[in-house]
Sequence to fold (91 residues):
Amino acid sequence: MIIPDLDDLIIADDSTEFIEELGRDFVYAGGWCTAFFIVRTRKDLDTQWEKPMIWIHRYQKIHEGWKLMAKVHLTQSTQMDVLRMLLSKFP
Fold:
């Protein structure tokens, strides 16, 4: 999938009732971009939203725009706890 401009990237829109994007940030370095998305999901319309989670996507700049090269979805609260613990080791 090629995205002409990352500002136009849509993770969830009004027609998506099972994914809600709560926030995002981009870190650019040369021809690469790491995108951080805070999202929450639910299985169906009758269930509550899950706790927020982080989706990390890595894009490479190519002639036509940006190409998704890798993605990691931290979906378990234990993954978030481990990430917090690792980050706390480095002041």
About this structure: The chain is about 15% helix and 45% strand. Strands lie at 2-3, 19-29, 32-41, 53-62, 65-74. Residues 15-88 form a domain with the Nuclear Transport Factor 2; Chain: A, fold (CATH 3.10.450.50).
